[in-house]
Structure prediction request, 362 residues.
Amino acid sequence: MSENRVYNFSAGPSMLPEPVLLKAQKELLNYNGSGMSVMEMSHRSKTYDEIICETESLTRKVLNIPDNYKILFLQGGASLQFAAVPINLMTKNRKADYIITGQFSKKAYQEARKYGDINVAASTESENYSRIPAQSELNLSPDADYVHICLNNTIYGTKWSYVPDTGAVPLVADMSSCILSEEVDVTGYGLIYAGAQKNMAPAGLTVVIVREDLIGSAPDSCPTVMDYKIMSEHGSMYNTPPTFAIYIFKLVLEWVVSIGGLNALNRINRRKAALLYDFIDKSRLFTNPVNKPDRSIMNVTFKTNSEELDALFVKQAAANGLVTLKGHRSVGGMRASIYNAMPVEGVMKLVEFMREFEAENA
Ligand SMILES: Cc1ncc(COP(=O)(O)O)c(C=O)c1O
Prediction:
């Protein structure tokens, strides 16, 4: 990593791969001989059209997305999808099942309730969201228009270790904090959505991957830019798309390919997570509250036995170039978000620092 850069454990927006930043820097003033930055370029220009088409085809290639799925590049964050999903998909029986495993899936549920009859098929709220419910605990409705899950729970550091069986009912997943961290069988989902600001690009871009047959039944009252059919028919260019974020996403996808694809990245991600969890599990000072099989490899939460020590840890870590380690305000303690762009050395440095802190304070 370049001098003067820190290891940034932010949950999002978060680190981008350094080769991506350097390439963007190199191309910033004059993209590909155009004499201008991608930021300054018309989204209707031929040069930009090449960028967005290439980004789409790379997304399809890297995530192995079949032809009967559309890829949309939208704005509004994952939070806008909390509304767009029910508006577009809850159109047959006006019913959906939501599984609540954290604050974001709860927000998604609260938003969906504005549009139809929502059943909470399971919730682990009473257990502080420290685990993912088992298939046998899911109270699914056979006539739901879809089932919604959040695959990786950024705040609590949990991840679904299995894909729930929803029978013929389409499964919708918020993958904001785990997309591109491993291979996914896209065909197991009716719709996948993700805010870009963790593993894909800077904030401002939201990616939606949706099965063709689920598009096209939004009511007339659906805002035009939220209508999957219209956005898809216009190649995500009904209006101005988040042009620069899409360009950075393209560079990130090229970087993913250069590493060897999602399997190779997943091996690195597992190694990084194992370094942290193995240390925490043996530690005399740090603990992780998550049910082991449900541990996230993207967001690792941990605590000491006192809030004062937690605060001291965060402060001293920052002084050592390990920044943004404070846990989410609703959970406390610490959280290390170790997305794709976090180098293995960053995690090794963190573990080394935790070891020193433990020796001084346990
Ligand atoms: C899993 C998950 N879903 C949704 C959101 C909300 O995303 P946005 O801020 O893009 O609306 C976040 C943000 O951190 C998240 O981690």
